[in-house]
Amino acid sequence: MFRRIRLCSFGIVLSLVAAFGAGAQSYPSKPLRMVMPFPPGGSLDVVARPLSQKMGELMGQQVVVDYRVGASGNIGMENAARAAADGYTMVINTLPLVVNPSMYKKLPYDVVKDFAPVSLLAAAPFVLVVHPSVPAKSVKELIALAKSRPGKLNYASAGNGTNLHVAAELFKHLTHTDVVHIPYKGGGPALTAVLGGESDLSFLGVVPASPHVKAGRMRALGITSLKRSSVLKDVPTIDEAGVSGYEFASWYGVLVPAGTAPDIVKTLNEYIVKAMRSADVEKYLAAEGAEVIASSPAQFGAHIQKELARWAQVIKAAGVRAD
User: Fold this and answer.
1) pLDDT tens digits, residue range 17-28?
2) Cys-Cys with 238: which of 31, 40, 222, 265 at CB 3.0–4.6 Å?
3) Which of 278, 323, 286, 297 shows the shortest CA–CA distance to 46?
4) Is there a contact between 137 and 219 (Cβ–Cβ < 8 Å)?
5) What is the enclosing helix (H) or strand (E) of 7?
6) pLDDT, position 17
7) Which class does domain 125-223 fall in?
8) According to the model, what pLDDT value does residue 24 have?
C-alpha cells in the first residue's frame, strides 16, 4: 500500500513538472502588453514602436503598446506594478524611472521592489534650443543673458520629472542661473511652445528638433551628451561650449512586474536583444539619434541602482521638486 502511495505521489510530481515545462515551452501563447507611461510621439515612443513590432515578429505574438499616461509616468508605472507577473505585461520607461523616487514624496510603487529589470535598450542625447527671438547664439551668451535677467527667461519641459525637466535643472544648477520652469503634457507640446515663442528655450529630442533648427524656426546651442550628435553635427556639446561637466543622455529600458519567473525574464530579454540588434531597428534608431545598448537583466538592474543614487544626489543639490 505504501509503495502504491509513493508511486502515486511520484506520478503527480512528474505530471506537475511536465505541465510546468510545457507551459514554459509554449510561452508566449497570447499577445503581450507593453505599458507606455508617456504620450505618443515622444522619444520613448520612438523606441517602443519599432521594438514592439520586431518583438511581435520574432515571438509570433502581437506586442501591444498600451498608453497609460499622466503624472510624469507614475500612472503607467502603477498600472504595470499591479499587473499579473505572468510575462504578458511589460513596461518601458526612461529617466523618470529613477528620477521620480527623489522628486515625489510618495509614489504608488517601488522601483526596486515592484519590478524586475529585463533590458536596457538604447541611449540618446537632447539638444538645447532657443526661440529665434532670444538674443543668444551660443551657450555662453545664453548663460550671460539668463544671469542678466534672473527669473525672466522660461523653459518648456514635457512635465515634472521628465528628461527635459531634469536636463534643464541640471543646466541651471551647473550654471547658477534662474530660469522659470513651464511643464507641458509631453515633448510635442513643449516643442510647439518654443516654436510659437510661448517658451524661450527647451531641451528637446535631437530628431524632432532637427528640421525646425535647419529651417531657422529655433536655434540649437548645445548637445547634452559628451559626444556630438550625428543628426546635428555642427552643434557643439554643452560641455565643450563652456559648461564643464555637463552630461545628460536619456536611456530607455524594459521591466516586468516583480515575481515574474526568471525563465520568462530570460526569454523576454533574448527576444528584446534580438529585436534591438536587428539591422532594421538599429538603422531606424540611429536615424533618430539613438544608440542601441541591449543589455542583460543584471546589467540593467545595476544601471538602475547607479542612476537612483546619482539623481538623488543631483536633485537634492539642485533643490528640484515636482511643481
Assistant:
1) 444 444 456 899
2) 222
3) 286
4) yes
5) helix 2-26
6) 44
7) alpha beta
8) 53
What's this model's pTM, rounded to 2 decimal places?
0.81
Q: Are strands 291-292 and 154-157 parallel, antiparallel or unpaired?
A: unpaired
Residue that the C-alpha cell 520629472 belongs to: 161
For residue range 278-288, what is the model confidence (pLDDT) as tens digits?
A: 999 999 999 88
H or E element at residue 85: none
Q: What is residue 204's three-state secondary structure?
A: strand
Q: Residue 25's pLDDT is what?
A: 64
Assigned CATH for 30-123+250-318: 3.40.190.150
Cα distances from 78 to residues 16, 72, 115, 118, 300, in angstroms, run: 33, 12, 10, 18, 20
Say if residue 101 is preceded by a cis peptide, omega within 30 of 0.
Answer: no
Predicted pLDDT at 116:
99
Q: Nine-digit cell at 238?
A: 554643452
What SS3 state is found at 73?
Answer: helix
Same CATH topology for 30-123+250-318 and 125-223?
A: yes
CB-side neighbour CA atoms (13 Å) of 73: 25
E strand spans, the chain: 32-36, 63-67, 89-93, 115-130, 154-157, 180-183, 201-205, 219-223, 249-257, 291-292
Q: 272: Cβ–Cβ under 8 A, 6 or more apart, which residues?
A: 51, 55, 118, 119, 121, 254, 294
**3-class DSSP state of 83:** coil
Q: Which parts of the chain register pLDDT below 70?
A: 1-25, 323
Q: Give the start-to-end residue ranges of the domains of the chain.
A: 30-123+250-318, 125-223
Q: Cα(252)–Cα(269) distance, rounded to whole angstroms?
A: 14
